[in-house]
Amino acid sequence: MNVLVPRKRFLHFCSEIQIFRPCEGHIYFRYRVVFSGLALYFLHLILEEKVSESAFVAIAGNMGVGKTTLTKLLHDRFGWKTFYEPQARNPYLEDFYKDMPRWAFHSQIFFLTQRFKDHLTIQSRPEVSIQDRTIYEDAEIFATNLYTREMMPERDYLSYQSLYHAMVKSLKKPQIVIYLRASTWTLISRIRKRGRSYERDVDVEYLAQLNICYENWIKKIADHWNLLVVDTDNFDMFEDVAWLDGILDEIGERI
Fold this sequence. Notes:
Blueprint: E1 2-5, E2 14-20, E3 28-33, H1 37-48, E4 55-61, H2 67-78, E5 81-83, H3 93-98, H4 100-124, E6 128-132, H5 135-148, H6 154-168, E7 176-181, H7 184-194, H8 204-221, E8 227-231, H9 241-254
Parallel strand pairs: 4-6, 4-7, 5-6, 7-8
Antiparallel strand pairs: 1-2, 2-3
Helix pairs in contact: 4-5, 4-6, 5-6, 5-8, 7-8
Protein backbone atom coordinates (compact mmCIF):
# COMPACT_ATOMS: atom_id res chain seq x y z
CA MET A 1 0.00 0.00 0.00
CA ASN A 2 1.38 3.42 -0.95
CA VAL A 3 0.27 6.41 1.12
CA LEU A 4 0.85 9.87 -0.27
CA VAL A 5 0.60 12.56 2.38
CA PRO A 6 -1.08 15.70 0.94
CA ARG A 7 1.08 18.78 0.82
CA LYS A 8 -1.60 20.92 2.42
CA ARG A 9 -1.13 19.13 5.73
CA PHE A 10 2.49 20.23 5.90
CA LEU A 11 2.40 23.64 4.17
CA HIS A 12 5.58 25.58 4.91
CA PHE A 13 7.14 22.51 6.53
CA CYS A 14 7.37 19.74 3.92
CA SER A 15 7.34 19.60 0.19
CA GLU A 16 6.50 15.90 -0.06
CA ILE A 17 6.49 12.75 2.03
CA GLN A 18 5.83 9.26 0.71
CA ILE A 19 5.52 6.12 2.78
CA PHE A 20 5.86 2.74 1.11
CA ARG A 21 4.66 -0.44 2.79
CA PRO A 22 5.60 -3.49 0.69
CA CYS A 23 3.95 -6.88 1.22
CA GLU A 24 6.83 -8.05 3.44
CA GLY A 25 5.58 -5.73 6.13
CA HIS A 26 8.60 -3.38 6.21
CA ILE A 27 8.11 0.36 6.00
CA TYR A 28 10.39 2.52 3.88
CA PHE A 29 10.08 6.22 3.32
CA ARG A 30 11.62 8.97 1.31
CA TYR A 31 11.03 12.62 1.94
CA ARG A 32 12.11 16.11 1.03
CA VAL A 33 11.56 18.51 3.85
CA VAL A 34 12.45 21.95 5.08
CA PHE A 35 13.80 20.85 8.44
CA SER A 36 11.94 22.31 11.36
CA GLY A 37 10.91 20.88 14.69
CA LEU A 38 7.23 20.81 13.75
CA ALA A 39 7.87 19.05 10.43
CA LEU A 40 9.88 16.32 12.12
CA TYR A 41 7.21 15.97 14.78
CA PHE A 42 4.50 15.34 12.16
CA LEU A 43 6.78 12.91 10.37
CA HIS A 44 7.29 11.00 13.62
CA LEU A 45 3.54 10.75 14.17
CA ILE A 46 2.97 9.29 10.72
CA LEU A 47 5.74 6.70 11.00
CA GLU A 48 4.56 5.66 14.45
CA GLU A 49 0.94 5.30 13.35
CA LYS A 50 -0.22 1.71 13.77
CA VAL A 51 -0.82 0.01 10.44
CA SER A 52 -3.33 -2.83 10.39
CA GLU A 53 -1.65 -6.07 9.40
CA SER A 54 -2.99 -9.50 8.67
CA ALA A 55 -2.63 -11.96 11.54
CA PHE A 56 -2.63 -15.67 10.82
CA VAL A 57 -3.80 -18.12 13.48
CA ALA A 58 -3.18 -21.76 12.53
CA ILE A 59 -5.01 -24.64 14.22
CA ALA A 60 -3.00 -27.84 13.85
CA GLY A 61 -3.68 -31.40 14.91
CA ASN A 62 -4.70 -34.90 13.94
CA MET A 63 -8.10 -36.05 12.70
CA GLY A 64 -10.80 -35.81 15.36
CA VAL A 65 -8.77 -33.71 17.78
CA GLY A 66 -11.15 -30.71 17.71
CA LYS A 67 -9.63 -28.26 15.21
CA THR A 68 -12.92 -27.30 13.57
CA THR A 69 -14.59 -26.88 16.96
CA LEU A 70 -11.82 -24.58 18.22
CA THR A 71 -11.85 -22.61 14.96
CA LYS A 72 -15.58 -21.95 15.38
CA LEU A 73 -15.17 -21.03 19.07
CA LEU A 74 -12.43 -18.52 18.21
CA HIS A 75 -14.67 -17.01 15.55
CA ASP A 76 -17.53 -16.72 18.03
CA ARG A 77 -15.29 -15.15 20.70
CA PHE A 78 -13.24 -12.72 18.59
CA GLY A 79 -15.05 -12.46 15.25
CA TRP A 80 -12.00 -13.67 13.30
CA LYS A 81 -12.36 -14.85 9.71
CA THR A 82 -12.38 -18.65 9.38
CA PHE A 83 -10.88 -20.93 6.73
CA TYR A 84 -12.06 -24.48 7.29
CA GLU A 85 -10.46 -27.69 6.08
CA PRO A 86 -11.68 -28.40 2.52
CA GLN A 87 -12.35 -32.09 3.19
CA ALA A 88 -16.02 -31.94 2.18
CA ARG A 89 -14.98 -30.62 -1.25
CA ASN A 90 -12.23 -33.18 -1.89
CA PRO A 91 -13.55 -35.41 -4.70
CA TYR A 92 -10.93 -38.08 -3.94
CA LEU A 93 -11.38 -38.41 -0.19
CA GLU A 94 -13.93 -41.21 -0.02
CA ASP A 95 -11.95 -43.23 -2.59
CA PHE A 96 -8.76 -42.51 -0.66
CA TYR A 97 -10.06 -44.08 2.55
CA LYS A 98 -11.12 -47.16 0.61
CA ASP A 99 -7.84 -47.54 -1.33
CA MET A 100 -5.06 -45.30 0.01
CA PRO A 101 -2.22 -46.39 -2.33
CA ARG A 102 -4.40 -45.79 -5.38
CA TRP A 103 -5.66 -42.32 -4.44
CA ALA A 104 -3.05 -40.91 -2.03
CA PHE A 105 -1.30 -38.63 -4.52
CA HIS A 106 -4.54 -37.30 -6.02
CA SER A 107 -6.04 -36.53 -2.62
CA GLN A 108 -2.90 -34.88 -1.27
CA ILE A 109 -2.48 -32.69 -4.35
CA PHE A 110 -6.07 -31.48 -3.94
CA PHE A 111 -5.49 -30.56 -0.28
CA LEU A 112 -2.13 -28.92 -1.05
CA THR A 113 -3.66 -26.74 -3.77
CA GLN A 114 -6.66 -25.66 -1.71
CA ARG A 115 -4.61 -24.81 1.36
CA PHE A 116 -2.08 -22.92 -0.71
CA LYS A 117 -4.86 -20.74 -2.12
CA ASP A 118 -6.33 -20.21 1.36
CA HIS A 119 -2.90 -19.30 2.76
CA LEU A 120 -2.36 -16.68 0.05
CA THR A 121 -5.80 -15.23 0.80
CA ILE A 122 -5.12 -15.14 4.53
CA GLN A 123 -1.79 -13.33 4.26
CA SER A 124 -3.33 -10.71 1.98
CA ARG A 125 -6.19 -9.89 4.37
CA PRO A 126 -5.91 -6.88 6.73
CA GLU A 127 -7.47 -8.69 9.71
CA VAL A 128 -7.07 -11.80 11.83
CA SER A 129 -7.84 -15.10 10.10
CA ILE A 130 -7.91 -18.68 11.40
CA GLN A 131 -7.03 -21.72 9.31
CA ASP A 132 -8.25 -25.19 10.24
CA ARG A 133 -5.10 -27.21 9.36
CA THR A 134 -2.20 -25.75 7.37
CA ILE A 135 -0.31 -26.48 4.20
CA TYR A 136 2.69 -27.44 6.36
CA GLU A 137 0.76 -30.34 7.89
CA ASP A 138 -0.22 -31.62 4.47
CA ALA A 139 3.41 -32.04 3.46
CA GLU A 140 5.25 -32.61 6.73
CA ILE A 141 2.74 -35.05 8.21
CA PHE A 142 0.17 -36.54 5.84
CA ALA A 143 2.18 -36.92 2.63
CA THR A 144 5.28 -37.98 4.56
CA ASN A 145 3.30 -40.57 6.51
CA LEU A 146 1.81 -42.01 3.32
CA TYR A 147 5.25 -42.28 1.77
CA THR A 148 6.78 -43.84 4.89
CA ARG A 149 4.01 -46.47 4.98
CA GLU A 150 4.57 -47.17 1.27
CA MET A 151 1.13 -45.87 0.33
CA MET A 152 2.58 -43.20 -1.96
CA PRO A 153 5.24 -44.18 -4.53
CA GLU A 154 8.59 -42.44 -4.29
CA ARG A 155 8.14 -40.81 -7.70
CA ASP A 156 4.83 -39.26 -6.63
CA TYR A 157 6.20 -38.23 -3.23
CA LEU A 158 9.24 -36.47 -4.72
CA SER A 159 7.03 -34.62 -7.22
CA TYR A 160 4.70 -33.61 -4.39
CA GLN A 161 7.55 -32.35 -2.19
CA SER A 162 9.08 -30.40 -5.07
CA LEU A 163 5.77 -28.62 -5.62
CA TYR A 164 5.32 -28.00 -1.89
CA HIS A 165 8.76 -26.42 -1.45
CA ALA A 166 8.17 -24.17 -4.45
CA MET A 167 4.86 -23.05 -2.95
CA VAL A 168 6.06 -22.25 0.57
CA LYS A 169 8.69 -19.84 -0.72
CA SER A 170 5.86 -17.36 -1.33
CA LEU A 171 4.19 -17.91 2.05
CA LYS A 172 4.57 -16.19 5.40
CA LYS A 173 4.39 -18.48 8.42
CA PRO A 174 1.48 -18.08 10.86
CA GLN A 175 1.74 -15.63 13.77
CA ILE A 176 0.81 -18.53 16.06
CA VAL A 177 0.33 -22.27 15.66
CA ILE A 178 -2.07 -23.89 18.14
CA TYR A 179 -1.33 -27.61 18.23
CA LEU A 180 -4.15 -29.72 19.67
CA ARG A 181 -2.76 -32.99 21.00
CA ALA A 182 -4.66 -36.21 21.79
CA SER A 183 -3.89 -39.91 22.10
CA THR A 184 -4.83 -42.29 19.30
CA TRP A 185 -7.70 -43.85 21.26
CA THR A 186 -9.12 -40.44 22.14
CA LEU A 187 -9.06 -39.61 18.43
CA ILE A 188 -10.81 -42.89 17.54
CA SER A 189 -13.54 -42.15 20.09
CA ARG A 190 -14.12 -38.64 18.76
CA ILE A 191 -14.09 -39.75 15.11
CA ARG A 192 -16.71 -42.40 15.82
CA LYS A 193 -18.79 -39.91 17.76
CA ARG A 194 -18.94 -37.36 14.94
CA GLY A 195 -19.91 -40.08 12.47
CA ARG A 196 -18.48 -38.99 9.13
CA SER A 197 -19.13 -41.85 6.73
CA TYR A 198 -15.78 -41.68 4.94
CA GLU A 199 -13.91 -41.86 8.28
CA ARG A 200 -15.78 -44.92 9.56
CA ASP A 201 -13.03 -47.39 8.63
CA VAL A 202 -9.98 -45.29 9.43
CA ASP A 203 -7.04 -47.50 10.37
CA VAL A 204 -5.89 -47.19 14.00
CA GLU A 205 -2.26 -47.64 12.92
CA TYR A 206 -2.70 -44.84 10.37
CA LEU A 207 -3.83 -42.44 13.13
CA ALA A 208 -1.01 -43.56 15.44
CA GLN A 209 1.60 -42.90 12.76
CA LEU A 210 0.09 -39.48 12.09
CA ASN A 211 0.45 -38.67 15.78
CA ILE A 212 4.13 -39.60 15.62
CA CYS A 213 4.60 -37.37 12.55
CA TYR A 214 2.85 -34.51 14.34
CA GLU A 215 5.12 -34.80 17.37
CA ASN A 216 8.19 -34.80 15.13
CA TRP A 217 6.97 -31.71 13.27
CA ILE A 218 6.19 -29.87 16.52
CA LYS A 219 9.72 -30.54 17.79
CA LYS A 220 11.07 -29.24 14.48
CA ILE A 221 9.27 -25.87 14.66
CA ALA A 222 9.20 -25.36 18.45
CA ASP A 223 12.29 -23.14 18.61
CA HIS A 224 11.43 -20.97 15.61
CA TRP A 225 7.63 -20.51 15.62
CA ASN A 226 5.16 -19.02 18.07
CA LEU A 227 3.67 -22.29 19.30
CA LEU A 228 0.93 -23.16 21.80
CA VAL A 229 0.47 -26.86 22.61
CA VAL A 230 -2.90 -27.86 24.09
CA ASP A 231 -3.39 -31.36 25.50
CA THR A 232 -7.04 -32.29 24.95
CA ASP A 233 -7.25 -35.89 26.20
CA ASN A 234 -8.90 -34.99 29.51
CA PHE A 235 -10.97 -32.01 28.39
CA ASP A 236 -14.17 -31.44 26.45
CA MET A 237 -14.43 -28.14 24.58
CA PHE A 238 -18.20 -28.12 25.02
CA GLU A 239 -18.27 -28.89 28.75
CA ASP A 240 -15.05 -27.65 30.37
CA VAL A 241 -15.88 -23.95 30.19
CA ALA A 242 -13.19 -22.64 32.55
CA TRP A 243 -10.44 -24.57 30.75
CA LEU A 244 -11.70 -23.40 27.37
CA ASP A 245 -11.90 -19.76 28.47
CA GLY A 246 -8.28 -19.93 29.61
CA ILE A 247 -7.18 -21.31 26.21
CA LEU A 248 -9.15 -18.70 24.25
CA ASP A 249 -7.82 -15.86 26.40
CA GLU A 250 -4.21 -16.99 25.95
CA ILE A 251 -4.65 -17.19 22.18
CA GLY A 252 -6.19 -13.72 22.11
CA GLU A 253 -3.29 -12.29 24.14
CA ARG A 254 -0.70 -13.72 21.73
CA ILE A 255 -2.17 -12.03 18.64
